[in-house]
Amino acid sequence: LQNIVSKHSAQFRGNAQHDALEFLLWLLDRLHEDLGAASPTQHPCVPEEVGGPCWEGQVVHTTSSLTCPHCLKQSNTFDPFLCISLPIPLRQTRALNVTLVLQCERWRFVRVGLAVPLLGTVAELREMVARVGRIPPEQVILAEVSPRGFLRSLGDVEELGAAGERAPLYAFQPPPTCHTGAAPSSLAAATARVALIGWEGGPCPPPAAARSSETLPGAAGRILLLLCNAAGAQLARFGPPLVLWEERGISWEQLQQSILAQLRALLRGEVQVQGTGALFRIRLAGGSAPCPYLSPQDPRPLCHPAVDRALRLSGAGGPPHVKLMVEWDLSTKERLFGDIQEEVVQDAESVRLQQEAHGQHSCTLEECFQLYTKEEQVLVPCPR
Predict the structure, then answer these.
(1) Residues whose CB falls within 8 Å of the CB of residue 239, separated by 6 or more in sequence, listed in order
(2) Taking the model in full, what pTM does it have?
(3) CATH number of the domain at 93-177+221-347, please?
(4) For the segment 133-185, what is each residue's pLDDT rounded down to a tens digit?
(5) Are strands 169-172 and 93-101 parallel, antiparallel or unpaired?
(6) What CA–CA distance (Å, rounded) separates 53 from 61?
């Protein structure tokens, strides 16, 4: 084949490498010349207004129409072509998995698959999560949670390009708040719920009234806490992330009891905790600066200035909140919780569907032609 082609075209002679596209264009051009030199009786005739009295040996034309948006004057150009380089439509979305931690049993710890826009913002993702979970968008907290704990919360103005790339993405919904007199606070409920955990010398004492946020100056109100438990030298995360409201003015002992109450379902039966010291350390997480630890000697650890800074930084999307890492000694963790690992997350059907839809990029020839012939806005001066 190469010898035959080289007899008719000097550019393909010799043993050098030749461009395959150039060969195809040359072959199409020769076929066109041979077909155009056929008998005149074989020439198809076309109407007068398209190409003349007889369309002899003409190649196919593309019609380019230009319409002025001001005077609406239209100009048509007929361009001959032998082949067309069609653009391939690119995807405008990508698959992103989000684990829902909502306040309803149906959507608690469920991983859903979403088709998020490539050039969108976190605010759009927040709206999508709200529609899937059927909750108001202002209640959605989006955060990246790695096997070692919290990384960062996502603000509404951030771009979606890097969301969920460093660590799995979680969507948290705060529990309903309790108003004074309407329901017992989480601190009072914690005292009742952790009765199975005995301290040396008797059960947990009730919280002191003098330490409530209603009597401590500067500690009024509640704070939304996101908690992750981690243990060992590598601080491997275990158990599910937790979301709870807490009083700003509580003591370290009361905060510890409240956290234990949230973990009551993971405890190994009737566990007896010896001593009255701190069972774990609590570290602020998710900041760019070195994250400080809350001190057990602080009478109001949640009123620390670092907590206030974390609250201000988290106001870019969703309810203001503070992310805390509860760090356990490995032996204490195994004694109280056994060999429990991370939470078990169920995948919704949307995870598989989005993976299949975005697994391989495919398009039809019709979609390529639609993109090729798509109308464009051309900025040219209007002819007078």
Answers:
(1) 229, 263, 266, 337, 340, 342, 343
(2) 0.66
(3) 3.10.20.90
(4) 899 999 999 999 999 999 889 989 888 888 888 889 999 999 987 543 333 34
(5) parallel
(6) 16
